[in-house]
Amino acid sequence: KTKVLKTIATIPVSSKYKDKEGAVSEAEDGLLGLNKDPNFATNHWIYLYYSDPNKSQNVLARFTLTGDVLDMASKKILLAVPVQREQCCHTGGSIAWDKQGNLYLSTGDNTSPRDGAYAPIDEREERFPWDAQKSSANTNDLRGKIIRIKPLANGTYSVPEGNLFAKGTEKTKPEIYSMGHRNPFRISVDQKTGFVYWGEVELINRKKWI
For the chain, which end, N or C, has fewer CB atoms within 10 Å of the first or last residue's CB respectively? Predict the structure, then answer.
């Protein structure tokens, strides 16, 4: 309404990768996703998914918006997703809600697409940044997934019934709703049907995107 921009918070993030040889590159990391709570009018909660500047992980955190300022002391980290920061890219990071109040989070496979025309499957020693078997194909890893959780008032979450793996299934993460994704950059939940839609963004080469 005012057509005036205002900074409500400054949040440190990581945006760089460093390979084995020490070469540093700028990546697509940073602030990856943002959405407000379905009951924002009463609780003033905002959820951010961003790259932790101190650890090799991306975090889903909840903050309270007080007036026009994000209260940094209110931060509650719901979920941490360990990542490799040697080779860019594929972060995902979209946040969406269904009508039951479940939060959906998309995560990329954290695997470099910049290794020629071959599939991202490389089991050679120290080639894990180019191997998506570690992430999107791994039932015990939160990368390359669409995650579904139920945020709780105390800043934790529960896992709703109906996710991909039953709770207690060996070598699985119960938060996984869908897996095998390359880079589900933006997702949407149909509020009538509950269907989840997403778009995959893939870097074929440095000049062409799909």
Answer: N
The answer to whether 177 touches 163, Cβ cutoff 8 Å, is yes
pLDDT tens column, 37-64: 999 999 999 999 999 999 999 999 999 9
pLDDT at 35: 98
Q: Which residue has the tokens 């379905």?
A: 38
Contact (Cβ atoms closer than 8 angstroms) between residue 79 and residue 175: yes
DSSP calls for 19-52:
-TT--EEE-S-SEEEEEE-TTHHHH-EEEEEEE-
Q: Nearest to residue 170, comparing CAs of 147, 197, 140?
A: 140
The structure tokens 């760089």 sit at: 16
* Mean pLDDT to the nearest integer, 126-153: 93
Is the per-residue pLDDT at 89 higher than 70? Answer: yes
Is 203 in a helix, a strand, or coil? strand
Helix, strand, coil shares of the chain, percent, nearest 5, are 5, 40, 55
Residue 113: phi and psi, rounded to 5, are -90, 0
Q: Give pTM, 2 decimals.
A: 0.91
